[in-house]
Structures are given as C-alpha cells and as structure tokens.
Fold these 2 entries.
Entry 1:
Amino acid sequence: MTRETLLKIDGISKSYPGVKANEDVSFSIGVGEVHALLGENGAGKSTLVKMIYGLVKPDEGTLTFRGKPFAPSEPSEARAAGVAMVFQHFSLFEALNVAENVALGMENPPPMRELAARIRAVSEEYGLPLDPARMVGDLSAGERQRVEIIRCLLQDPKLLIMDEPTSVLTPQEVEILFKTLRQLSSEGTAILYISHKLEEIRTLCDGATILRRGKVVGSCVPRETTAREMAELMVGATLTPPERRAGAKGEVVLGVTDLSAASPIPFGTTLKGISFTVARGEVLGIAGVAGNGQDELLLALSGELRVASDKIRINGRAAGDLGPGERRRAGLVAAPEDRYGHAAAPDMSLVENALLTGAIRRNLTHRGFIDWAATRGFAEEVIQTYDVRTPGSHVAARALSGGNLQKFLIGRELDQSPEVIVINQPTWGVDAAAAAAIRQAILNRAAEGAGVVVISQDLDELLEIADMFAVLNEGRLTKPRPVEGLTIDQIGLMMGGAHGMEVAHHVEA
Amino acid sequence: MDIGGINPVILVASLMVAAVPIMLAALGELVVEKSGVLNLGVEGMMIVGAICGFIAAVGTQSPVAGFAAGAAGGAVLSLVFAFLTQVMLANQVATGLALTLFGLGLSSLMGQGYNGIKPPVTAKVPFGPLAEIPVLGPIVFGHDWMVYASIALVACVWWVLRATRLGLIIRAVGESHEAAHALGYKVNRIRLGCIAFGGAMAGLGGAYVSLVRVPQWVDGITAGAGWIALAIVVFASWRPWRVLIGAYLFGGISVLQLNLQAAGSGIPVEYLSMSPYLVTIVVLVIMSSGRGRASLNAPASLGQNFHAAR
Amino acid sequence: MLRLEKRPIPSRFWLYATPVVAVLLTMIAGGLLFALLGKNPATVIKTIFWDPLFGEFAWYLRGQLLVKAGPLILIAIGLSLGFRAGIWNIGAEGQYIMGAICGAGVGLALYPTESRLIFPVMILAGALGGWAWAMIPAILKTRFNTNEILVSLMLVYVAETILAKASTGFLRNPEGAGFPGSRSFSGSSFPAASNPELIAGSGLHWGGVFALLMGVAAYILLQRHILGFQIKLAGQAPRAARFHGVKPERLVLLCMGLSGALAGLAGMFEVTGPAGKISIDFNVGYGFTAIIVAFLGRLNPLGIVLAGFIMALTYVGGEMAATNLGLPSAAIQVFQGMLLFFLLGVDVLTNFRIRTTLLGVK
C-alpha cells in the first residue's frame, strides 16, 4: 500500500551541551499511517517530537509537512498547521476542569458552553466518555488521557503525536484506545506513536523507525518483524533475561493487615483495607495503573505516612506507628518512585545522598555527628558494586542520568543488608541494560533471604521477577496470587477492566 | 444613634475609605499569586507608590496625576522583582523581602523635604441630592472616585480571571508551569505581566494612603498595610470578591480602633493599635486550619521559579 | 541573546565570588545614587568603606564596627538556619524587641540588688523572651498550617506597641520625671545588670562574644552534625527530608525557636549595653538588616560573620557620611537594599551558566 507523504523529516540534528540528542534523523510518515517511533529512554524520541511540535528548534535539517517546508517556532504554529500532541506527562492542570483544560490546548476555543457541547459530541463519536465540568485532578489516569486526546481531536489534526500513551492504561483501556486510533487512521489522520512496548507496536502500527543514541538505526514493518528483532535493534545488544535462583521461602518478614489511610497528596488516593504478607526470599509484585494508590502505599510502608501500630509488622514487630528512621532500624528499606526530590535530594552530592537513608543501618553517625569518611566509603561502595557511571561521589545527584541515579539509589538501599525491601517503579525511565541490572540485584537480595515488595506499572517486569502478584485498584489491593499460571486476561480483570468504558464503545462499535 | 460615642453610619462610610489601599494591593497580589508568583514586596511597592503619587500630586496639583504616578512607581519597582525572579531566577521570598527593605529606604529618601505639605484634595464624586439621603447617602454616594474605582477593579479582575482566555491562561500558568510551557505558553512573560500589574495596584493603593487616607507624607506611612494585603489574599482564598470582604473587615477594624481611641474608651491605646495585626493573625489561623483549608485553593506552582530546561 | 543553562554541579568559584561581585556592583550603583544626590561618589564610598577601618577616627570606629556587627551576626546566624530549611522567620525584629524587654524586665525587677547571678539570669530571660515570641508563629504553623512569614511579621508590629507601652508604662524609670524610657543599665547606675565593653576601645561586649561563639557552633552543626544535614535537606528537598525521617513540625519548632532565642539574646545585649536602656526607639531595624546579612553570608555561618562586618561598615560609615557629608540616612538603607538585590541577581551564576547565542547563528 502506498500512501501520500504527510510529514517528511530530513537530516534533523539537534545537540545539547554534552549530548547529541538527534543526529541526521530522516524518515517520513504517510497520510493516515500509524507510524511507530521506537527507542529506549534517552534515544532522542522526545527531542525529535518536540521539534515537530515547535517546542524545540532543530540545529540542522528540514521538515516538510503536506508538501510545504515546516518550521514551527512555537506550538501554536504547529497546532495551526494540523499537528496535535498527547503528552506523557505535564500537560494537564489538575485544579482546572476538563473544558478549561481542552480550551488551553486550542488556538481559538469557542465559548465555554459551546466547547462543552463539542467535547461531549466528540467523546461520544470516539467512545471516550468524559464530563466537561469535572475537575481534572479527580480523574483517573486513563480519563486524563482522554482529555488530552479529545483536546487534540477537536482541532481536526492531520498528524497526532502520542508519547507513550499506554503506560497509564489497563489492558482493556489499551484495546479501546487502539480502536479509537484505528478509527482515526481510517479517517485519514496519521499517528506518530512513541513507545518501547513492542507487542503493542506490532498490533497497531503500519511502519516503524527505530532510534538509538539519537540516530536512526533501522526501520521495519512491525507486523512482519518479531519483537525480539526490534528489541535488539533498539538496545543494540542481545538481551538476557534475569537469572532466578529459587530460594526456599522462609518465615513472614512483612505483614500488612487491613491498612487504611487517607492520602497526604492533593488529589491522591485513599488506601482501603490493604492486607498482604511477604516471606523471606519472596518477591511480591504489585501492579496497577498510575494513581491507584501506589505512592500512598509506599509512603505507608516507608513510614512517611504513619498508621496504627498493629497494621504493619516487620519481623513480627508492630511497626505501623514508626517513622522512616525507626523502620530502617527494624530492617525495612524503601525506594520511592520519584528520584529527583523524593528518593534523592537532586542538588546534594552522592555522598550526602548516601547518608540520606544509610545513616542508621550503616552506622554513619556517632552521637549525631556525621562520619563523613565512612559515608564517602559507603557511597563509593555503592557506585562500584552497582556500576554507577559518575565522575565521582562528590557529583550532585541531578547530574547523573536517570538510569545511573536509579542504580545508585537502589544500590544504596540494597547494600544496607535489609530484611524487607519496598520499591516503587524500580526501572521507570531506565534504559534496558540498567533495568536488567537492577532487577538482577533485587532478585539476588531476595535469594539471600530478604522479603521484597515491588510496585510497578510495568506488567512484563512484574511477571519476570515476582513470585506473587496483586493489583492496586482505587486504593484497594487484590488478594495476592502466585505468578505461575496467571494469564493476561486474568490480570486485566484484576486490574478492574476499563474504567466505565465498556458501555461507551457500543456507540460506534 | 451613636453607640458608645461612635456613629455607625460614619463608621461604615469611613471603613470603605480605609479599606481602599489594602483592597487594591491585595487585588494586585491576588493576580500575581494566581500566576504562581509570591511577591512579598507589596509593602515596599505600596510605600514607593505612596511617595511617587505624593510628589506628582503636589507637583502638578492634580490627584489624578498622583494616582497615575503612584501606579507607575509601584509597577517600576515590581519590574525589579520580575527581572530578578523571572530572568535571574532568584528566590521569590528573599527577593520580595529585599523589595520591601529597598522600598522603605527609597521612599524615605525620595520623601525628604515633603514632610508637612498638604497634597491636593481628591474630590468627592458629586452625586448632588443623592448624597443627602440619610444613612444611604454617606455610605453609597459620599465618596471620592477611587472608592468606586477600587470596587470596579474587583469586579474587573473577577471577570477577567473567570471568564476570559487571559484569565484562564494566568490560572493555568499558576497551576502548572510545566504543563503551560508544554502547550506553548510563555510562562515567564505572562508572570512578568502579572507582577507588573500587581506592582501598579500596590502603588495605586499606596498613593491612596498618602493622598487621601492620611493625607500627608511621613516615613513608613503604610505601616504594614502591604503585609495585611498579603494576608487578605490568603483570607480570600484567592477569590476577588472575598478580597473586598476582607479589606472591608480590616478597614472596619482599623477605623473602629481609631474611633475607640478618639471616643476615649477604657481600653489602653496600645492594645487598640495592635488589634489589626492580632486580628490578621487570628484570621490567618482560621483560614488555614480545619475545613476552610485555604491552602487547597492556593495555586499549585505558587512561589516556584520556572526554567525551561530543554 | 543571553540564555541560562543549568550547571551540572554548582560552581564553587561563583559560590564565593558572588558576594564580592555583589558588593562591587552595589558600590557602583550606590555611587550613581550618591552622585544623583549631589555628592561626590568616590568620597562617599571612601567614607563608608575605608574611613571606619583606616581613617582618622578608625581607633574609635573600629570598635563601633563590632558593636553593630554583633547583633547582626547573632540574629543572622539564627535566621540562616531557618532559611536553609525553608522556614521563613521574618519577624526577628519583634523577637529582638521582646528579648530586650524580657531581659531588661528581669533585671529591672531585681533593681537594685547586686549579684553576679543577675546578668546570667537576664541573658536567659532575653533568650526565652525571643524564643517565646518566635514560638507563636511556629506553633501556629505546625498546628494550623498558618503562614509563618505573615504571622512573624505581624508580631513585629505587636512587639513595637508593647515596646511603646513598656517605655512609657510598665518599665518606665520611676525616677525619670515622667520621661519615657527605663532606668539606665550603663555605667555605674546598675552594674550587676550592665553589659559593658569587655576590652576598652574594642567594642566587644558579651553580645559580640556570643555572636562569634554561635558562628562557630552553627558551622559545626551544619558541617558535621546530622541535624545540620536535616536542616539543609529539608530546605532543598522537603519530600526527601520526610523520606529520611525528618519530622517537619519538629524542624519548624527548632529553627524558629533557635532564631527567636538568638534574636532575643541580641536584643537583650543591645539594651543592656550600647543602647543602655529600654526606650521607645532603641531598636534600629537590626532584625530586618540581619536578613540581608544572612543572604550576603550565603547562609553560611562563617560567611555571615564576614557579612555582619561588611553590613556594620555600611552602618558606621553611613553615619560618618551623614554627619560629615550630609548624606541622608535613608540613602544608606537604599544602599543596603541594593546590596541584597545584586546579591540575589548575581547568585544565578552559581547554579547556571550564561550562554550567548548570536541571533541567526546556530
């Protein structure tokens, strides 16, 4: 099938100090084509897309859109030309309602009442139910994405850019999204689909361009290529799955009973009656779509959010009312999702960040006075053991790449001989090699007898490393089940299906 | 109809006048904070507005020129803040404080030689016989034009924030500067405009103090009104009409305590004169705690600087 | 076109260079201001920055430097701890006044007893007075989430009215023929409660001693102690601080209390020493100037000691310029304000690089 070319990208280069984000990138997208842009974190996908959307100017190269030279200097120009974008994060306003959010993304929005009517109409047409008057902060992740999509659709885009759209969706929601995207494609809207999830790309996309370190390393027709081939193009190396040593399960080290807690985060999720146990040597994987209580669960387990003492037991000892320091003393270490500002202080050095959680279990203070030599030793030990690429331990945390900082932060927790490990999103935004190393390190600790809780939105990751599997849904946790023998359909049901969307799709189906 | 030596009609009429400076300053600061910027320099901008307005009014013998100069003075000073926080990315709290310290010094320097001079009188709006109506006359029809203008400005700000695209963009920038930037809005430029507006309003309020409220020039003439204006923004939970209520409330307290002092009530003068500040604290406590959590209404990006990294 | 670019690591050079650059820029801008006022800029700058140190009357003025620097350093050290933790105590002036009233009040209550214990008790009372005044915003913040900036500032105005009441009412000198102001602490009138110059001509009194001691103590706290680490952490990354195990409420109480106590101490030393008695205007705004000192010293205790002396120089030299050259005293206030502006502005260089990109060139 030959298509008329919609967007032609020719020899685009862009560099930042120290990094070549894009180097001589060329490919083209046809009218109505669903084109995948594939690559690891840091491969230069976002930079490329921002150039098409007018947020960043290329250093070299040209864009041609609908046969005309295209060099948008700001997003409004790109939008006027017919380019729309659904962002992965950072483009919705929680304290504004749906209609206001939509209006902000449009060039000449109609009056609010008319806009609300159009939002209803479009959401009906594409099976994406949405109430224009609702506050965005109260919406689920999937619903928030609908806001973004509808914002784009209202402008009749010729090209729709979607940045990692499925990372926040349940499997059922993904299916509905794909249906919408196919409908758009059949109506002639091209879609530039950014992802690193290979199976999705194989089911949805007509063509794919693969980026590695800012360069195009290949292109393919996804339907005719195996996921493994694409992965190896993307990573540039052969991947080995982590090694599992089946250790015998020991006694229970972490017990959570009927844990309920209101969220300290604005627009957060309340935890409702969560119960589970983790034994020595066991890895419990907790799945769920973002915003279903993951952050709150981590806060409650790390001790930042305190509950009644008997709700959480570490090694049989009531620990619910203990703070983070006391829980570390009791043997529990935790690694929050947000690296820049929660797990680490971005402007502090790696040595200081080592002290941040290591002070107690590594005996880095004496009567409150800090032993800086020992702390530096600890930081350097972590850097070495976990292969953290950094000029030294004096470097500020924010200067490290996401993957390297994550290796440091996970290593910092694992090297405190913990008995219970709680990690939220261990490999989020981390390149494949680092992710594999992190998973292996976690499994090694479990094999040595620690009980591990991994909270993640990456199902593949959980199925790879967890023994037991449970799902967080609107602040409730399903009963943990053994991973062996679980099917994707069962997992989808555990995840609570698609939030209120089953009904909606009948309209156009 | 006097109560304890105080005439309630005159009290209400004069509290409307007393409320004008803090209402204007608070309204300006509300817009600034809605855009996500915390400018603690209100006191400094007010007092610079007060002296600029005073000098211009005395020089031209025109109150209108005085108010214009007051607004201009406040706006110019606010641009220093805007430059430091939006371009040089300086800490907003520290810069706001610097603005106040600088403004107090600058006003006193500019005001040398202006002590003891009377500014031209800002005339009352001639409502003719309407002003003679008992009770209603002095309260509704007995004021100078700035009193009416300040109420109109409240309505105007309310309308802009609520119903216009500009207002929507200001709120969006204050809510999440990253998201606004991703959609292509010039975060720092929008904030710069809001800061300048806030400065002009504070300057206008300051000019009203030196031209109408007092009316003469003395060092430190604003006496903490700028800080009270900041508190009123919190009291108002970032809503324009509540700024009006808050300003009337505080205007009422300051007029009442002055009247009580004059009426020779048994309460010591010192306790009366500290009452507006104590009431401010009490109101802040009530608004920040419990169900009336004002903080929930606060713009999410308040006080954070924005730098587009890539 | 100029563009800012975040540095991977804060520049150590600019960390130390910014205060120097800021002082130089302030001299230039201040010179312009003085020229506008019809004074010879070079003479004024020399009078402010050179004469107190090396001029004709330096033997006297050098002592005055320590007199002014003492309270500024003492207050700024306390404030800097809070500022580092993101806790904004802006009401040091009020705590300074309350410390003075409490310290002096205890002393006056014991008049005319002569005992070596009186002065230490007054020191304690002064610290307690400042501490208690600072605890009001602290407790309101921890209990009701009330903004500490506004509350601590409102309390300055309240403290000022209490001071007025004290000097005309409850602390007024009964033998003062009805004039406002308390009994004098200076000289021989009440030796047990007096805070005299310790070495003649040095300007050093107990306040200066405390200021230098606190500078060292704060330095050790921030560099070596886990509490200092927690203070820095809470300011830079509040969520990481909670994750570390800091209780934000505790930190607020601690930092506010400490800065209040130090401000109270400063007030007490001032009123028993250089000021000599409680009077309606014995406070000259040290509580506010100390904010500038804290930033000029980069919130670093040793830097603050240095900054305290620089600021004292502007006070002492400013007075000289006022008497000798007729420079309005408000001009010095403007000068100090400009110093803070320049400091905050130049500070960007510590964390950012300025890149020049010529238009049209890639």
Entry 2:
Amino acid sequence: MQIIKKIGLFVFLIGLTIFTILPFVGEFKLTPASLDQIIQEKGISSEIFIQGMEENVVDEEFQGMFTLSPQIAQILETANAQHRKDKEYKKVIYTGAHDMAAAVGKASGSGFIVENKGLMWFLTFGFGILGSLLFIIPNIVLLGNKGIKNNGIYHENATNRGWIAWMVFVFLVSFYLVLYFRSEYAVNWTYLVDPISEFLSGNPAGHWFVYGFMYCTVMTVMAVRMYIKYRHNMYQMVRTTSVLFFQIVFAFLIPEIMVRLQMPYYDFKNAFPLDYDFFFQWNLKSLLNSGGIGLFILVWGIVLTLVIVPVMVYFFGKRWYCSWVCGCGGLAETLGDPYRQHSSKSLFSWKVERWLVHGVLVFAVAMTLMTLYSFFTETGTVLGLKTQSVQNTYSLLIGAFFAGVIGTGFYPIFGNRVWCRFGCPLAAYLGFVQRFKSRFRITTNGGQCISCGNCSTYCEQGIDVRAYAQKGENIIRSSCVGCGICSAVCPRGVLKLENGPLKGRINPTEILLGNDVDLMDLVNKK
Amino acid sequence: MEHIVIIGNGISGITAARHIRKLSDKKITIISAESDYFFSRTALMYVYMGHMKFEHTQPYENWFWKKNRLNLVNGYVSKVDTTNKKLILQSEEEIGYDKLIIATGSKSNKFGWPGQDLKGVQGLYSKQDLELLEANAPNNEVCKRAVIVGGGLIGIELAEMLRSRDIPVTFLVRESSFWNGVLPQGESQMINEHILEHHIDLKLDTNLKEIIPDENGRAKAVVTDKGETIQCTVVGLTAGVTPNIDFLKGSGIETGKGVKVNNFLETNIKDVFAIGDCAEQHEAIGNRRPVEAVWYTGRMMGEALAQTICGNKMAYNPGHWFNSAKFLDIEYQTYGWVFSERSKTDYEQHFHWRHSKEKICVTIAFHKDTQQFLGINTFGIRMRHEILDRWLTEKRSIAYVLEYLKDANFDPEFYAQYEENIVAHYNSLYGTGIAPRKKSWKRIFSNI
C-alpha cells in the first residue's frame, strides 16, 4: 500500500511538473486571418497597432510566451501613446497588455501542445488526478478502523508549516497571480481543456474556464480524501457531497450551458455581496438586455441576498451557505482540510478578524450604493469619488488579492478559511443573522468537556471553541461556518451542531452541570 | 489583602483560582513545578500522537494570568509550615499564605515491582512523563516493543499513543477482561475485541512479576506471572494513580491515602484546604469513592471551594455521577451508576443492547423491583447530559427512559439512530410494548 502511495505521489508530481512548465513553453505563430479576427472582436481601429502587429508578430515564430508577450505589450503601448499624444482617443485600445497578449496567444498557438490537446490533458490533469487518487485511496486500508485520523498532523512537514507547506504556498500564490494578472501565461493551459469547453459552451476555453475546471477537479479528488478520512461521520459525508454538487453543477456546468443557450453566464448560488459585481453597470445592462432570463436572474439575485440567505440562516445557521453550498467554502473544506489547524485562535486574531471582515462588508455595500446611484443618475462620480475607480480598487484588492491570492494561496500557512474568516462580506452579513437571529448553535453537552483543545485546534475559523465548551456554554459565534469538525474531533462527545428553539440558545454559565444543583442555581441565576 | 496560595496548577487549582478571582479581589498565587501555565492533562496523549502541539493543550493564552492578577510561581513546595503559615520551596524561597489550597493531583502507582525504577520504565501523568515518552519511544526503530502494565483508562490511552507510531504494544491486564472492575461484562468484552482490532497484544489475567535490566540499567524485558518473558524497550506503568502528597509529611496536615478533608474541603488545620485528585473525603459521598481522580470532580471541588473561601460557605456536593472516556475509536459516556458484575448490588439489574456489526452498545441499569432508572453506559452513542441528569433527579423508570430515549441522543446530525432497535430489544426481552417517542425540543428545553 505504501508503494502504491509512492507511485501515486510520483505520478502526481510528473503531472504537476508538466503543468508548471507549460506557461514557459509552446510555439506561437499568428496568421493574418487570426489577426483580422482579433481586430474585429476587439473593435480595434488603431492603424499603428495593426501595423506594428503585421510587421513584428504576424507569421513570426515565437518560442514561449516570454518572447511574445513583451512584444505585444510594446506595440500596444507605442500605439496608445501615439494616439493619446495626437488626441485620437477613439483609437486608444483599452484592452490591457496582458489580456491582449492572452488573446493573441490563444489565436496563435501552434505545435505539439495545440495539436495534442487530449494527450496533454492526460499528462497534466490526467496524471494529477490519477496520481492523487493512487495517493489517497490506499488510506482506506492504511488509516485502519474508522474514526478520527489526525495522527501525525503536527509531525508531518506538509501539514506543520514545513518546507513542503511553503512550496505549496509559493505554488498557489504564483498560480493565482498568473490567473489574475498575467493571463497570457495561462494560454497553454487553456488548450488542455478546449475540448471540454467546446463540448459544454461551444467556445474555446479561456483562463477562467481552466480555473473552473481545475477547481472542480481538485474539489472532487480532495472530496474522495474527505470521504475516506471521515467515513465514520455521516454529517461530513453529506456535507462534502452537497458542496461538491453545488460547485460542479451550479458554479461550473449551468453557467457554461447557459452560454451555449445564448443566456448570460450566471452562477445561481453566488450571492451578493460575495458576487460583488452583480450590480455593476455592465452586468445590469447585460441582464436587462437578455430578455426574460436576464430579468429572472436580476430578481433572483436580489431575492437571494435579501430573503433566501437570511431566512435560511435563521433556520439552519450560515453553514447552509458557507460549508454546504459556497464554492470558496467548498475548496476550503476539501483542498483546505489538511490545513484547517493553522487558523490562529488568539484573541488578537479575533479582533483583527472583526475589523477586517466588517470593513470589507462596509466597503462592498458602499461601493454598491455608489454604483447604483451612478447607474440611475447616469453620473460617473459620487461625492467626488469616481465610481469606476472605487470598483477597480475593490476588484483588485478584495476580488483578486484577498479572495484569490491570499484566500487560497495562504491555505498551507494560515489555514483554509483566511478569506471566509477575514474577508468575505457575505460571511459577515450572514454572521450578523447567525449571531442575533438564528436557530443554529453548537450545543455544549453539560459538564462533559475536559478542555483537551481538539475542537479549538481544528476549528478552521479560528474560534476558540474550548473557551465556551469548558464553561458549559453553547457556541454562538457569527463566524462559525458549521463545518462540524469540532464535534467530530471531540473525544468526549461534548459538541453537537443543531437547530433548535431560540430560547436557551445562549446560555452563559458560571457553574457547570454535574455540580450540586443548588450551587448551579445560586451562581448561574444571579 | 488576603493571600490565597494554591499548590498545583491543574484543573482543580486553576478552577478555584478563577472562581476566587471572579468573586473577590484577593491576592492569588499559584505554585507549580510541572509547567509554567495551566494545560489540560487529558490532552497530553494528543501531543504525542501529533494531533496537537503542547501549546494547544493550554486553555488560556499566556496574557490571561497577568490580566487576571493570578500570580504564577514556578517552583516545588518541599515543606508546609502550618504554624507560621508559610511554604518553603525547594529553592529555599519562602511564601506566606493566609489560606492554602492543596491541589497537587496524583502520581502514578508503583507497587514495588522489581525493576520499576529502571530507565525506560515510566508512567503517563505529567508533562514530564510526556517528554520522557518522547525520548523513550520516539519511533519504532528506537522502541522495538512497549509493554503496558495495568488495564485502565491511562493504559489504553498509552497503548493508543504508541500504536499511532506503529510501535508494537503488549498490554498486561490483571483482570480477566478489560476494565471489568468498572464495566459490565458485555461492554468490557467489546473493548477487548476493539483492542485486538488495533493490533495490540492484549494479555488478560496477567500480572507483572519483574522488569529485567540490560547492562546499562535500561529495561530490556518483563517477566509475567505466567512465566513469560517479553522483550521490550519501554515499560508503561499505568496501574492507577495515587495522591501526590509526600511533601506534606510532618506538616501536621492529616493524610490518609490523600489529604483528609470534610464536606467543605477543609483539612484538620484551619485555613488549609485540599481539592481534586489529592483530596480524600472522610466519608465517601453517595456511591463515589473517597478519592476521586477525575477531571470533572476536580473542577467541581474548585468551584465549590471558591465559594467557601469568598465567604459563602458551601459544601462540596456533587450531583449525579457522570464520566466519559475514549477507548481507541470508541467513545464512552456514563451517567448515574452502572456497576460491573463485580461490584453491583443485588437489586441492580442491567439491560444490555449491542449492535450486530458496529462497536456500539448500551447498558441501562435499573432497580429490579421498583424499575427505577439508575444509570446508563453508552459506547459509540453520545448522550445529552442535561436530559439524563434530569431523569436521574426525577427518578424515572426504565420504561420512561426508553420511551423518551430519542430526547437524550446527542450524536451529530445524519448519524444512524438506534433507539428503535434498543427499545425493540428491550420489548422482546421483557415482553413490554414500549414505543419510542419522537424527539421533542419542547421536552428537552422544558426546564429553561
């Protein structure tokens, strides 16, 4: 079994290596026809740009994106600089250099990778999936009897912030930086999944499709790991299945299929303000121009945030969204599960958390109010602030850096819920409802706690669960996403996630159950 | 300002300190030679197993103590001078007190076995024991085999710890079945089976005769009373614990097995109290033992004594007995009294149900004549403490308990429920027609 695991690891690493090399290799040769197509699609009217492309790029062979991308950036900048100088603002190209390079790259890829998409998919994704499964599945035998399997977590390099964890950190951060800021280097990855994308939506894949496909793949593979590790715990099995279902069907398949049906791309479970650009002008316009379905999405999006989300939180706690439905939560609960113990439990972190997460919520709401004001009054500025710049700032700082680069990249070092805990505005909103008006609580079982600390250690949201449990108090915290792991790891059966009457939900105690009843009454009722 | 000095920073001492601080402004000093800060002793096993780091066993952050003016002293009290109300530390430092709380816990039992003080022979109680185990048994290269002597809760924990590093373990148990001085037969039998499932070499009915040293004074083998010699690197002595009170000799404080205390946790000397594992009640409370080395009772004594010290004189009067443990993968909870065959009275009758495949079982004790519910043991099913505590107070019948058993279930959501099977089994045994009721939040919260 250990041998199978080692083979699996080896195969996985080969797949990962090939995947990592891809951005650095590949042949690119732009045909005149492809250039024409790009010019049309992007509505380019800059003759300087077209001329530059024709002279320097068309029919030239480029080896690797590192040679092509700077060339395009230069042509683009020269053209724009000239037009700005000449005040020919209509000719200025607003597509960024990296997006332009990605578009050109996508149209001009040639050679082995492009001609062998299926094989290349197998050598990267295929090896990755196969290798990880070979690594994970022997655990059915190796982990022995079903039960809590946390042996060695703090002895293993990978799960105890060792060099492997730091390598994963570097890889994930770099991956997200490429995805958000250097999409031209993802062009070779897009070829691997072109056949899948064409099958689903009819269009070739962009880098966000690569991300979406990879997201689902990673979650599925890591869900297998969850199923094996927590096979004694039905709550974890059901929850993992739910979150996987919503990712694959709602976040991945339905939007792609909607595109095929000429409908707007929309993830029906992605609620505002996590879906921060829902009220952005371009989205509203696109929805209003999409007929019945567009209108339906608009109404659904508003009802989801204002009615469905809070009502569901009232009945089930915010877990129904954060650890049963949400995509960010889904990745955190599968890929992130090996790192859940790294969330800081200090009081200091809690203070930082409250300022940050509520700050982001305020930011998101303020930005949206500005956006709507601008939309209805058709002005570009509100109180002297440019709506567009506020939106760009939010998209960059929160949308890309916080949610993406930090949110996932920091898993191996700071735990798997950095974004959900410190940054997600939806989580902050749900948290208010959960804290003040919800049937959900984690019940502490009388006086049974032995303060061992397993619950706190494995809380991904950094809640010091033990601090409540050892006082006999129920855990009512706005940040709790109801993953259920505290209850799972408790060796004494002290914690239970449940939905019950509001009365008695918050139960501060001084003296714990089990001591003389008079003493309990005396002290607890004063 | 009155100066309260507490010897021992375990759960009893710390609970007392916290509650005294809540109730008063007294000066509080806590002395310990074991660790700088309070940690949860019950979690030491998880540090060795790699589930947690030592710092995770500390329930309070380090700033907590200063903020709450709990003065921590790292030192070993070698003498208590009750006449002059002062303590003398090993460092010869002296600390005066107005009121003294002895909360020094336990130490591992050693029964005079030949070789019991050799290198590689150890108990599992303190932080130092954990560090010793890490040195003695870091992996299965260094520790080829460990022999554990004593089939109790610490013994099975030590076995689980060593198995987590794939170290072969031989487990010597004096009794004919694991912990059957406490557990009824069916349960004890199930744990025997589970121990074997974990590839632990369980030797029942077997006593340690001696531990054989090698040329360096390290244990190299044990000899059992069956004449068997077992080669090993580490010997774990886990045959129970005894109060850690040697330093009180000559202090005038009355001791027996532990520090003798009355219901108010007072010793024979004014202003000196004892709580937790090291305290021994003059007269046992109910069915409890005079010395209770249990986490929960230590905490309760701390809660009660804090009231007394702060002027609200209050006897230690624990409610219904409860306890819990985990045997490898099987969680165990108990509420009320379920005695083993060895110690139960003739009116105590047991109803036992065991799952046909899974390691899940339940034993309910009831009065043969009055049908009164006396207690319940569950293995692999979690129970709601409040409900069972209430039923014990209300002196419910076993029929009532079975009928409303679903109210008491505390398993996580979506777990398989066994109440129907349990009740059906009872009905078939006793010819009754009890129908289990649906869980009701209204009943569960009826006393709030």
